[in-house]
Amino acid sequence: MNYGHIYQAKVYEVTEDHAYAQVQGRTFEIVGHKEDRYQVGEEVEGVIYQDRFGKDVLQTDLPDIRSEIFGWGEVQLARRDLGVFVDVGFVNKDVVVSLDDLPFEKNQWPQKGDRLFLTYEVDDQDRFWGKMATPEDIAVHSVKAPASAMNIDTTATAYRLREEGTLALTADGYLGFLHASERFDEARLGECFETRIINVRQDGGVNLSVKPRAHEAIGDDASMILAILERTPNNYLPLHDRSSPDDIRTQLGISKGQFKRAVGNLLKAKRITQEIGDGIYLVKDE
Predict the structure, then answer these.
(1) At what angle do helices 245-252 and 219-231 cross, to 10 degrees?
(2) Tens-level pLDDT at each residue, the chain (286 residues)
(3) Are strands 56-59 and 26-31 parallel, antiparallel or unpaired?
């Protein structure tokens, strides 16, 4: 008899609050499907294990994650001397991902609420150990991204950390790579982060970025220009594409490139009008 495996059992006792079944002569309390009323002699199927209270149980609603079956488990607790505890769908029981399978740097460990794609193994002492998916395992559960995925906003979960970047699976199941140059900080293992697709590769994978688009990145510059226009006479600023970089920096404190991107953003949003060789004007709300 092996904990973590599925067995057929026969119900042998039913009380007002509990039901018990026997597997190969051993007794297990039935957990899961509390709304069901079992009958003595009824055949049931479930996975057996010992819960955190040391009680032998047979869980009849099978978790999505089972031995050799991968799925997303939610991190419940991190213990620096042991690893992280992950909820894989058992009642009153988590599995442990050993610290030997986690990043050396503790700040890269998963935190409570993060997700790991894993299955579990049971050792000869009946301890449940989480086994994280390899990139090859992840690939089996992924789908190829269509060309139309380019530039969409999405979320992704980090499943492998590398010096050159982060491997992640997007919410749509695309294999993603977040290069170190396209992030601000190192992602945690298991962290779900907001991102966007900046390239759809020929193999169906995608490249990701957490940095804002160019027009989003200059939001502060555009806001500053709007604030200045609102205070100037006639809501006018005598700066334009042909203005010198020194004039722009003197009046606004930003580069000419930043100015041109901010103006382009404001024109697109129809917040200003521009007269070539003259300047820019605020579009007043009607």
Answers:
(1) 80
(2) 899 999 999 999 999 889 999 999 999 999 987 656 889 999 999 999 999 999 999 999 999 999 999 999 999 999 999 999 999 999 999 999 999 999 999 999 999 999 999 999 999 999 999 999 999 999 999 999 999 999 999 999 999 999 999 999 999 999 999 999 898 888 899 999 999 999 999 999 999 999 876 556 557 888 899 889 988 888 999 998 889 999 999 999 999 988 998 898 888 878 899 987 789 999 976 5
(3) parallel
> What element of type H or E holds 176?
strand 175-179
User: Could you tell me how far CA 44 lies from the centroid of its own chain?
Assistant: 36
Report if pTM > 0.85: no
What fold, for 71-133?
OB fold (Dihydrolipoamide Acetyltransferase, E2P) (2.40.50)
Q: What is the CATH number of domain 216-282?
A: 1.10.10.10
Distance from first CA to last CA of the chain, Å, rounded?
77
At the topology level, CATH places domain 143-209 in: OB fold (Dihydrolipoamide Acetyltransferase, E2P) (2.40.50)
Residue type at 31? V
Q: Do residues 106 and 186 lie in contact, with contact meaning Cβ atoms separated by under 8 Å?
A: no
Phi, psi of 212, deg, nearest 5: -70, 155
Q: Where are the domains of the chain?
A: 6-59, 71-133, 143-209, 216-282
